[in-house]
Amino acid sequence: MSSFSKQFEHRRRLLQWLSASPLLAPGGFALGAADRPSKLEQLEAEAALIGKPEDAINVFDFEPVFFKNVPPAHVGYMASGIDAEATLKANREAFSRYYLRPRRLVDVSKPDTSVEILGVKHPNPIIIAPTGGNKAFHPEGEVAVARAAKVGGHLEMLSTSATTSVEDCTAARGAPIWFQLYASPKWEVAEHHVRRAERAGCPVVAVTVDRVAGRNQEAFFRLRRTDTRTCANCHEPGVQGSVKRKPAYDGLDLAGVPNLQSANMTWDFIKRLRGTTKMKIVIKGILTAEDAALCVSNGADGLIVSNHGGRGEDSGRATIDVLPEVVEAVKGRIAVLIDGGFRRGTDVAKALAMGANGVCVGRPYLWGLGAFGQPGVEKVLELLRTEFRVAMMQCGVRSVKEFTPAFVRRV
Ligand SMILES: Cc1cc2nc3c(=O)[nH]c(=O)nc-3n(C[C@H](O)[C@H](O)[C@H](O)COP(=O)(O)O)c2cc1C
Predict the structure, then answer these.
(1) Distance in Å, CA 33 to ligand 1 centroid
(2) Which residues have any ligand 1 atom within 6 Å of their CB?
(3) How far are the Cα atoms of 2, 257, 278, 303 from residue 328, in angstroms, in the given order?
(4) How far apart are alpha carbons 326 and 334 in whole angstroms?
(5) Contact present, 23 and 46 (Cβ < 8 Å)
(6) Is 411 in contact with 353 (CB distance < 8 Å)?
């Protein structure tokens, strides 16, 4: 087999694995099949892997290259949802139920994609969602992501579980970043993280509230079994061992801390945090109008509609389906961000039209990172920005604030 046809075969098998779609059978177009106006799915399935970021036509082009480069256990960590992955799938599938209502004959020759989030202007509404352990995908990890975010002018959130410190990531981004907090069950741990983030110049702490229990990441656990490396060579057991390459925990004694989740967190924690830090507080993981209203009444500055990329609980709703009730409950009093399955500029356009102030992305920039390092992340973000700008112009929208719910209908 030539190296080209090996690549071809490799990508086809990856995509078969991903979609289990009968359309991906070999043999060119299924000419006798029912009318299928779009040939794209098959063409994508049969495309050779891209060899450089510039060859990418959409963000999905990076995913199979990530799969090729990154060992199976780490692929599993990135790709996995929870249990049967119904929430994971819902996030993506829901976008097809919303369609755009473009307006015509508007001068969109000078589109302004900038947004203001918590009093700061950003050149575009696409935000780096916090993801742990980026060095599992590329040796430069979060630094590569931060440098790419700087090139594209993206707001960035750094995970407590990052493999790069908040100081180094801030330096690489060249601007203040937001710090995502895993509080743990012990106040002193949370306090330590928050004080350090504040010293590093973070203006905002994003408190993740949707990880309170263990989780059965089935895809991850199955893929890990196929990894021939010995996980114990890098990953040490126990809570203290698990944070060994996570600089946020440097100098912290985790003795007596049973895990890093926050099963005991309540709204009192948010009030206590409010009294502890001058940073703005954003609550990540809100999925109901009731909790959105509580974010407002408990003094949060913003919230993120998020189901942790389908990694929190299964049988959940797509975040884009949740957005309207949250926007309605918040009534513009605090910032509303959203994440979960955003892969296209039109996805971003829909969320902004429906009232989000910004959209966070997770896995796509990780695909870029694992595929090509910083240039891969740069290209993923560039594709998303370009697609969003095009969607905005096609809708007849000159600036983001002109987007209103009238531009979107649900099927
Ligand atoms: C590999 C991976 C690691 C993540 N780590 C964190 C984390 O440390 N903290 C956090 O609040 N969310 C974490 N998330 C959730 C993301 O912040 C975000 O909510 C989610 O990825 C958005 O969905 P998307 O991946 O479909 O874009 C992680 C997600 C992934 C895929």
Answers:
(1) 39
(2) 77-78, 91, 129-132, 159, 161, 180, 208, 284, 306, 308-309, 311, 339-342, 361-363
(3) 57, 38, 28, 13
(4) 11
(5) no
(6) no
Asked whether 279 and 195 are in contact (CB, 8 A), the reply is no
Rounded to the nearest whole angstrom, what is the distance from the C-alpha of residue 34 to the centroid of ligand 1? Answer: 39
E strand residue ranges, 20-131: 98-100, 115-117, 120-122, 126-128
pLDDT tens-digit map of 25-34: 444 555 555 6
CA angle 166, 343, 172 (to 5 degrees): 20
Q: What mean pLDDT do residues 211-221 have?
A: 95
Active site residue 235: no
Mean pLDDT score of the chain, rounded to an integer? 94
Q: What is the pLDDT of residues 56-65, one digit of tens each?
A: 999 999 999 9
CA of 131 to the centre of ligand 1 (A): 5
Closest Cα to atom 2, ligand 1: which residue?
131
Res. 143: pLDDT tops 70: yes
**3-state DSSP assignment of residue 303:** strand
Both structure tokens of 409: 């209908």
Q: Which of 82, 131, 156, 377 to mutate to test the pocket of ligand 1 (most atoms within 8 A of CB)?
A: 131
Residue 36 pLDDT class (50, 70, 90 cuts): confident
Mean pLDDT for 70-94 is 98
Please give the number of the atom of ligand 1 that sits closest to the Cα of 285: 19
Cα(41) to ligand 1 centroid in Å equals 27
Yes or no: say if 300 and 283 are a contact pair by the CB < 8 Å rule.
Answer: yes
